[in-house]
C-alpha cells in the first residue's frame, strides 16, 4: 500500500514537472524571407538566421525554450497582440508607432534601408531627390513605407507583401528600383538569385533604426528577463559571435 502511494506521488511530481517544463516553451514569430536575420533553410525546412540564433541564446540564458513560428512580416504584431505567438524576433525596427502597441527589448543591431537597382543603372543615387519620377517598390509593414510615400518624388510606389515578389519585379524591370533592409537585400543579391540587380552603394539611408525583440506590453517580467539575458550575452561576446557568424559588422 505504501509503495502504491509512493509511486502515485512520484507520478504526480513528474507530471507537474512536465507541465512546468511545457510552460517554458515560448512561440516566437519570425519571417521566412529576411536573410540573414530570419529565413527558411530549405535543407532543414526550419527558420534560421541572426535573430533566431539570438532568441535561442536569450532563451537559454533566461530559462525558456523557443518554438519558431514562420509568418509574413505584416502579420507579426497582430499575432503577438492576439496571443498566437509570445515573442517577435525578426528584422523589425524599434519605432515609436510600434512601441504604442508592443514593447521592445534593448537594441540588438542597427542599420538602415538599402536601394536596389538594375545592374546597368550607373546613376549615383544618394537620396530620394535623385529618384524623381521613378516607379519603385517597398515592403508593406516596414518603417520605410511612410517616408517614401510622403516624399512625393516618385511616379509610383508599389507595395509588396514580401521581398521575393519585389525583387522579381525589379529583376525583370517591372519597377526601376526597390527599398529593403540593406543587410537582407545585399545578402540575397550576393547569392545570385537575382542576377540583374545590384545595391546602389552611393545611397544614404533615410530611416536608420535598431532591431529589438518584441513582447506584449503586459509581459513586463518576460521583457525584464530578456533584457537581462541580452546584457549578459553582449558582455560575454555571444552577440558579437552571432553577428560575425552571419557576416554582419558589430
TrEMBL record:
SUPFAM superfamilies: Periplasmic binding protein-like II. Keywords: Signal. Residues 25-250 form the Solute-binding protein family 3/N-terminal domain. Residues 1-22 form the signal peptide. CDD domains: PBP2_peptides_like. One of its GO terms (molecular function) is ligand-gated monoatomic ion channel activity. Residues 25-250 form the Ionotropic glutamate receptor C-terminal domain. Coiled coil: none annotated. GO terms for cellular component: membrane. This is Amino acid ABC transporter substrate-binding protein.
Amino acid at each position: 500500500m505504501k509503495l502504491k502511494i509512493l509511486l502515485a506521488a512520484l507520478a504526480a511530481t513528474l507530471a507537474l514537472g512536465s507541465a512546468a517544463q511545457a510552460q517554458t516553451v515560448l512561440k516566437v514569430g519570425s519571417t521566412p524571407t529576411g536573410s540573414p536575420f530570419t529565413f527558411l533553410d530549405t535543407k532543414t525546412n526550419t527558420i534560421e538566421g541572426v535573430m533566431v540564433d539570438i532568441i535561442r541564446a536569450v532563451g537559454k540564458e533566461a530559462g525558456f525554450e523557443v518554438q519558431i513560428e514562420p509568418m509574413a512580416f505584416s502579420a507579426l504584431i497582430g499575432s503577438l497582440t492576439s496571443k498566437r505567438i509570445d515573442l517577435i524576433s525578426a528584422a523589425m525596427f524599434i519605432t515609436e508607432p510600434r512601441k504604442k502597441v508592443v514593447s521592445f527589448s534593448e537594441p540588438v543591431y542597427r542599420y538602415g534601408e538599402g536601394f536596389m537597382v538594375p545592374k546597368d543603372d550607373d546613376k549615383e543615387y544618394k537620396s530620394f531627390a535623385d529618384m524623381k519620377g521613378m516607379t519603385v517598390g517597398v515592403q508593406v509593414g516596414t518603417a520605410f513605407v511612410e517616408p517614401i510615400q510622403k516624399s512625393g518624388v516618385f511616379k509610383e510606389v508599389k507595395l509588396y507583401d514580401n521581398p521575393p515578389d519585389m525583387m522579381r519585379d525589379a529583376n525583370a524591370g517591372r519597377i526601376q528600383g526597390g527599398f529593403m533592409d540593406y543587410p537582407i537585400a545585399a545578402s540575397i543579391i550576393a547569392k545570385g538569385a537575382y542576377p540583374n540587380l545590384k545595391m546602389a552603394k552611393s545611397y544614404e539611408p533615410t530611416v536608420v533604426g535598431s532591431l529589438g525583440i518584441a513582447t506584449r506590453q503586459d509581459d513586463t517580467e518576460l521583457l525584464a528577463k530578456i533584457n537581462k539575458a541580452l546584457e549578459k550575452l553582449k558582455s560575454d561576446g555571444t552577440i558579437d559571435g552571432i553577428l560575425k557568424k552571419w557576416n554582419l559588422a558589430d
